[in-house]
Amino acid sequence: MNYKKLLIDYRYYCLFNTFLFVLYKFINFIFSTFYRVIIIKVKICFRHNIEYLNMYKKLLILLNFLSKRLKIQSRFIIIPTIL
Fold first, then answer.
1. How many domains does the chain contain in total?
2. What does each C-alpha distance from 17 to 11, 12, 27, 48 come to in angstroms?
3. Which structural domain range is residue 48 located in?
4. pLDDT at 33 > cutoff 60
5. What is the value of pTM for the model shown?
6. Which residues contact 16 (CB under 8 A, 6 or more apart)?
7. Contacts of 7-15 spanning 24+ positions with Cβ under 8 A
8. Residues linked to residue 75 through DSSP beta bridges, in sequence order
9. What sections of 1-83 are H helices per DSSP?
10. What is the largest CA-CA distance in the chain?
């Protein structure tokens, strides 16, 4: 195993997780001032994130559609976090 490559991967992993956390806080702050937001944090695998993100996008569309149909004043936001 290449130790340097693992170190770089871990550094990017930490940066990406930090970015997602800041984004999560920012979205939560912005949307909570207007209406209630239900935030779903999902865990995705780093290697298979494309398939998972497509699946979560469809789930997000479905949840937002249901909330409109049920007249719920809330929106669903899915934020991926890396395992």
1. 1
2. 10, 8, 15, 16
3. 3-82
4. no
5. 0.34
6. 82
7. 13/46, 13/82
8. 37
9. 3-32, 49-69
10. 54
